Amino acid sequence: MIGPARGLAVALLLSLSGAALAAKPPARAPEAAPATEEGAAFTLEFIDKALAEGRLKSAADLITRARFRYNGPELQLREAELLLASGLRTEADMGFRVLEAEPATAARAKTGRAVGLMREGETTLARELLTTATRLDPSLARAWSALAVLAD
Fold first, then answer.
1. For residues 116 and 133, what is the distance between their CA atoms, to the nearest angstrom?
2. Crossing angle between the packed helical segments 56-67 and 37-52, to the nearest 10 degrees
């Protein structure tokens, strides 16, 4: 029998259909309007809020809809965060690894990957990733907080 959390994880995986790991973005729908930078930022804020509040189904729905208008490292970062929040650490780790190569998301991807490693008790690699993340972006509060947890 599949528990509620596992069922949600399976549903999220099916709805995301591997987009977090895809090498190329999906084809745009013909009726999709060109994305505006303001519209993309607004949608990302909604996704971040849903993730922060633990509304994983809402976050998955927002990501799925956003993918048709714009797809890039920022959206893929949210997909990896959703996978991590859903308990799919291996899949999230793969998504974060891809994003570590992107300058705009490298520090946050390293931090997300480190958080997943910490949950598995792999503190040595997590500490290395967090140290690198704080060097890349000294204002990244999540990385500093995770380092504090490791130090505690």
1. 14
2. 160
**pLDDT beyond 50 at 102:** yes
pLDDT tens string 16-33: 444 444 434 444 443 444
DSSP string covering 27-52 = PPPTTPPPPPHHHHHHHHHHHHHHHH
CB 21 within 8 A of CB 91: yes
Residue 145: the pLDDT is 96
**Residue predicted with more confidence, 49 or 69:** 49
Task: Tell me how many degrees the CA angle 123-131-113 measures, rounded to the nearest 5.
Answer: 55
Six-digit token pair at 36?
A: 């505006």
Q: Would you say the C-alpha torsion 68, 71, 75, 76 has a positive or negative sign?
A: positive
As given in the structure block, the two tokens for residue 24 are 């190329």
Rounded Cα distance between 73 and 103, Å, is 10
Q: Determine which helix (DSSP H) or strand (DSSP E) holds 141, and give its type and residue range.
A: helix 141-151
* Token code pair at residue 57: 């189904």
